[in-house]
User: Fold Bacterial repeat domain-containing protein from Treponema vincentii ATCC 35580.
Amino acid sequence: MKRRYILLLSALVLFTGAVIMTGCPAHVQPQTQKYKVTLNSGKHGSVTVNPALPEDGMVEAHTWLSFTAQPDEGYEVDTWTGANRNYPDNTTATLTVMADTTVSVTFKRIGYSSEKQKYKVTLVQPEHGTVTVKPALSEDGMIPQHTRLTFTVTPEPGWKVNKWTGAGIWQDKIGYDVENNEVHLSVTEDVIVSVTMIEEGKADASLLKIDSTGRLTGVTNKYRLKGSLALPNTVTAIGSEAFADCTDLTSVIIPDSVTSIGYNAFYLCTGLTGVTIGNNVTEIDESAFSGCHNLTSITVPDSVTKIGNFAFSGCKSLTSVTIGKGVTKIDMSAFSRCNKIETLNINCKTVPYLGMTSLKELTLDDNVNEIGEQAFYSCTDLTNVTIPNSVTKIGNKAFQGCTGLTDVIIPDSVTEIGKAAFKDCSNITGLTIGKGLTTIHDEDYYSNEFPFDGCNKIEKLNINCKTVPRLNIKSLKEVIIGDNAAIINGYSFSNYTSLTNITIGNNVTTISDNAFSGCTGLTDVIIPDSVTEIGASAFASCT
Assistant:
């Protein structure tokens, strides 16, 4: 009976279990739990993980991770957090993932306790100054972490701070005073603190950017470039916009090693008052010194062959300019808007139009061969000009409108005078023309382009050229024709009614047709023995 009962009970249990299993879904598995593992490593070392963490850091529960630290040379593991360090090997630690965990490791210098971490602070004393530190550095220079140090420099007379390194490094940013005599440092690592000094008023040449070819391409910080600057001899060229907008630059010495000054090189250097250009510069490019408002004088050396367009445009304080003999091309706007230039010394072979209408004093040196077209057009304040014996040609309108001129001597070397060369120089009273003149341009009586048209105060003329041309100077009262003259051209002095006295040189052979016709003021004429021919009406109507 007992055995039967047990069998029935077992059958019942099996039946009940079958019913329950029949009601459950097939193949359902519980979801795997994951946790986020984050890894942080401090300075002076790195950490690897095995197995590697996925990108999102999510790791399955119960995963066993092994961490291995690699300290930098001279450092060792200090602390692990979030993982179990393996003793005695501090470089490894393990973790069985059971929750979100951050694993961190820090490093320390070998031989120092993390509780009293120290770093070495080295002070380099500058030339031309002395630095003190508070609190004072220990003999070994080892300073506890996070100690705040104050460095103070006392410059020698005539010197100032140029730049700190190692301490107060934030001052290198634009807008901060890099010339501070006092800076601070919070000790967080080994550091060398130094300061460089610079003479008062001198700019820091270490700010210059110079490429491998010697080309100066710019400056690292234009706001720190202050005072006078002497470029090093390693510079071979000054590139485009190299010093543009360096407004605190006051003077520049360009050495002989430099051969060219590029486009906009010193554009808007408004503080610049003086520039020395080296003797090997051959080209001053377009707008090189444009807008240098305080530049007062400039000397262009003999080596320069070209001065570009607008090279000195807008240099409104420029009063004196010297241009050497090597210049073969000056673009016409090179000195535009330079309205205070009063003195010009120029020695190039051909003097071009410069637009310097404010000129008062002009020196043409012995290398000048030609005074170009409109070279000194309308320089109304110019009162005196000496034309050297090297000049052979005076171009069209070269001195037109120079109303301040009172006396002009054209030397024997001049062979050609262009049309309207001295037109409207209304205050010239004395004129001397040397013996070399052979060509007077535009002798058309009705052209109004004679070289001296509008010069209505010239009363005396000394002329000694081989052939005396027609000049159309009707105000003349006295004419002296020198012994070099051989021919007096037709109509040369026709209708000069104010002419009262004429001296004809002893070598004149021909007085051409109408040469003195209508000279009603003449009362006495001596024709020398040398004259062999007198043209028709040569003295007609000399009543």
